Each structure stands twice: as structure tokens, then as C-alpha cells.
Amino acid sequence: MQSSVAYPKIGDFHSRTFPFIRKLSAALVVAAISVITIQSAQSETVTGSAVIVDGDTIWVGSEEVRVYGIDAPETAQRCQLPKGVWDCSKAAIGALAAMTDGKTVNCVGNERDRYGRLIARCSTDDVPDVGAKLVASGLAWAFVRYSPDYSALEKKPRAMRIGIWQSRTQPPWEYRARRWSTAAQISSEGCPIKGNINAKGEKIYHAPWSRHYAKTVIEPSKGERWFCSEAEARAAGWRAPYR
Fold first, then answer.
1. pLDDT at 27
2. By the 8 A CB rule, do 49 and 104 touch?
3. Long-range contacts: 108-117, Cβ < 8 Å, 24+?
4. Domains with residue ranges and CATH for the chain
5. pTM above threshold 0.85
6. CA gyration radius for the chain?
């Protein structure tokens, strides 16, 4: 709610006439900014067992969590070897499962992405930072577009050529863009996300980079449909597939 009181601006007063008011006003502005910063940084914590969606996304109870600071290979993505390819997505999911299966997972975050997922650092009793370990193991990229926190952890696996650094591998953000562009050209009205309903009646959407995207067939007569974005699919009641 906007106040009806017209507060004076600092520049409205002559510095030689009201020096103390200038200082007081500036102090109040700083204090106000501090309060706003504290309020915007209020953290959320979720604790429980984890259900893995992919190499950087899990469900903890009823909360979907996007692991902070990393980007893991997409479920349909394969990574290059000096000779051939390997299922780097499966490796990342396996490593995440090894860290979280049968464990109590604690995730703490203070912001959400455009899909409503909590962006959080996650830990268990024996793994202080799940995302950091994935990057250090060469199974995820530091997502420097949003945070530089883990960029230094890439240096060792890159130098040792382990995991995703064994050969030139397309990072997942480029992979998603390429798959989306290709699928949009042949999908219904340029909307490439497949909204499937499985045998249990669960509404599951498959993005172009999902493992089962190619073999998923949409049957509108069964209530299945195409979506133009993940946000649209989620708003309509569909969810991403689990691992």
C-alpha cells in the first residue's frame, strides 16, 4: 500500500542549511534497503526423502527443488567420449541417487524459478553440498549464468578429463535450445511439449530433451495435448517425469 505522506527527497534541501537532515535521510534510506534485503533473503527449508526427477532436480515431500548453482545433463542427452558416446545423464542421476537414496535430505533456498521450484542447496548427513559434489565429480556444469559459486570446482575434473570433460560435450543449456528448435518445427502449432496421460491416469509432460520424448505419442481423444512451455504444462496440472 502506498503511503499518502509526501516524504521529502534528499535533494530538496540545501546541503549547507540542512546537513543533518541530509545525513539522516541517507541513513534512513540505507536502513530501508537493509530491511528489504533481509526480507527478500528469507530462506525456506525442506527436509525429507528425495524423489529424483533428473540430475539436478528432486522432489522433497511436496516441494520440487532445483539444485542450486548447477546444470546436469538432460535425461535424453548423451556426452562425447574420445571414441563414441556415454549416458552422462544416467551417470549424474546415479550419483545423485547414491547421495540421497535412503537419506534425509535437507534443502535450503531463498528464491524460486519461473516454474515455482525452490532453488536450494541440498545436503545429507555425509554430503554437505550435493550440487558441489556433482560438479567436482565431473557430472554437472557450474551454471554460471545464474551463479559463479561452483565455477572453481570445474577446474580439477576438466584438467583430469573426467566425466563430462572427457571430450567436447555440448552443455545442457545449448542442448535444450537445439532440441527445442528442432521439435518446434514439426510439432503441433510450434508447441513441442507432449502432455501425456499414463496408464495410472498421471498427467506427465515430456519436453524435447526428456528421455522418453521420441516414443511418446499424443492422443487428443484421451485428453492428451501439446504445450508451448513447461510453465503452461504445470499450470494445467501436468508434471515432469521422474527418473
1. 41
2. yes
3. 108/43, 108/44, 108/45, 109/43, 109/44, 109/65, 109/68, 110/40, 110/41, 110/42, 110/43, 110/44, 113/66, 114/231, 115/64, 115/230, 115/231, 115/234, 116/64, 116/234, 117/57, 117/64, 117/65, 117/66
4. 44-169 (2.40.50.90), 175-235 (no CATH)
5. no
6. 23
The rounded distance, in Å, linking the Cα atoms of 160 and 166 is 8
Amino acid at position 127, single letter: V
**Residue from 135, 134, 131, 125 nearest 47 by CA:** 125
CA angle at 183 for the pair 211 and 199, rounded to the nearest 5°: 45
Nearest to 213 by CA among 100, 54, 61: 54
Euclidean distance between CA atoms 211 and 184, whole angstroms: 17
**Amino acid type, 148:** P
Count of CA atoms in the C-beta half-sphere (13 A) of 153? 22
pLDDT for the residue numbered 240: 86
Instruction: Give the three-class secondary structure for 40.
Output: helix
Residue 208's pLDDT is what?
A: 84
